[in-house]
Design brief:
Largest sheet: 7 strands, antiparallel
Distance between the termini: 31 Å
Strand order of the largest sheet: 5-8-9-1-2-3-7
Number of strands: 9
Number of helices: 1
Shape: globular
Length: 149
Amino acid sequence: MIQYRFDRPAAVARMSGGGVTGAVSFFCRRGEVYVAADIRGLPRETDPCKCRVFGFHIHEGRDCGGEGFADTGGHLDLAGCPHPCHTGDLPPLLAWDGRAFLIVRTGRFRLADVIGRTVVIHAMPDDFATQPSGHSGEKIACGVIRRVS
């Protein structure tokens, strides 16, 4: 079994919007980036047998401003790929009781590629097909990726 120790993130995006809070942390190890999201306050289902799935992406914008987080722009796409192979396309967040936790390893970007960019949570799940953004719906939370000093 491989064991990884993540003592301190290299960068963090503090998420907020509509009661959503939490952090998306970025760890670097052996040339790869690990993204860890710990999110609270997501919209909930009242039926205990249903869960919510939310689109989750790194966007090209450098600010969470504008109505509906409009300043975040589209998905970060440094290589000119179609969705869902954009640089910033990440697995969706699966939430239960308003909380979601996810860790993913990616080789799609280096930390330097995303510092100062935005992380966005969308209201709907990503369908991994519709161009250019997977039909993920409105942006419900945002955070700017900042290097940890």
